[in-house]
Specification:
Number of strands: 0
Radius of gyration: 49 Å
Largest sheet: none
Structural class: mainly alpha
Distance between the termini: 104 Å
Mean pLDDT: 84
Order of helices and strands: H
Shape: elongated
Length: 146
């Protein structure tokens, strides 16, 4: 055998090994694609009913939200009616009640003055000056000197 024949045989052997590795890789790739196809089919089978249930749930939620919206509008109407009623009651009874209270206060004050002699001095009111601010040496401000 010559060197060229040996080189040809070596190339043929390496080529056969390379082809067998490629065939093995392609076989594994085919298995992976079959498994992926099977998985997609199973997910599709499970997703269709889930989407139907989700659609039904959304419809039910929309119905409930419509009911809640109706209730909220009723509550808003009741609140506005209560506010109007409160304003009406305040207007109708507030003024007269203030007048009655002022009249009662005046009567009590007049009765208190009736029992007091005229020569008795009236109490004096003293307006106080504002207190000075705390000094630097006070208990609260000892550590705050800059």
């Amino acid at each position: 055998m010559t060197g060229g024949e040996v080189a040809g045989i070596l190339v043929a052997v390496f080529w056969a090994i390379l082809v067998s590795f490629l065939a093995l890789a392609l076989a594994r790739l085919a298995q992976t694609l079959k498994a992926a196809t099977r998985l997609v089919a199973e997910v599709t089978e499970q997703a269709v009913p889930l989407l139907g249930e989700a659609s039904a749930t959304v419809r039910s939620a929309n119905t409930q939200l419509a009911r809640v919206d109706s209730i909220a509008s009723d509550v808003q109407e009741v609140t506005s009616n209560a506010s109007a009623l409160s304003a009406t009651v305040s207007t109708a009874f507030g003024g007269p009640l203030v007048k009655v209270a002022a009249f009662g206060y005046g009567v009590r004050r007049a009765m208190a003055r009736k029992g007091r002699p005229e020569d008795e001095p009236r109490p004096t009111v003293v307006v106080a000056k504002p207190l000075p601010s705390a000094r630097w040496g006070g208990r609260r401000n000892r550590g705050s000197k800059s």
